[in-house]
Write a structure and sequence with these properties.
Blueprint lengths: L5 H21 L8 H22 L7 E2 L2 E2 H37 L1
Antiparallel strand pairs: 1-2
Helix pairs in contact: 1-2, 1-3, 2-3
Length: 107
């Protein structure tokens, strides 16, 4: 899928926008608030959807738009957006966990 057509690019772009909207505004799963969090989910969702067909496989050839298998693309976009947000939340909590650990040693 490295040599994709413009139609495939647009299909993945639309899928990743839909997923980013659902993740950011629909269920409000956020590490970053505002537009920067939405765009980060959009980019990671696009990467997830792009990688999904080669990794997950080609499911349901009837549900394909311009060489993009829709179901694996949606699953990949959700995985990419979720992993980005989970990683961001884990990094945000990391300093607090270290501070708690250091204060318990001092006591």
């Amino acid at each position: 899928m490295i040599d994709m057509t413009f139609a495939s690019f647009l299909t993945i772009l639309v899928i990743s926008v839909i997923v980013a909207l659902i993740m950011h505004y629909g269920i409000a799963y956020r590490a970053l608030n505002g537009v920067d969090g939405f765009f980060a989910k959009w980019v990671t969702g696009w990467l997830g959807a792009w990688v999904a067909s080669p990794v997950l496989g080609h499911w349901f050839s009837g549900v394909k738009i311009s060489a993009v298998y829709i179901i694996p693309a949606f699953l990949g976009a959700f995985m990419g957006s979720f992993l980005f947000t989970a990683w961001g939340k884990a990094m945000a909590m990391r300093p607090r966990a270290l501070d708690l650990h250091e204060t318990s040693k001092a006591a």
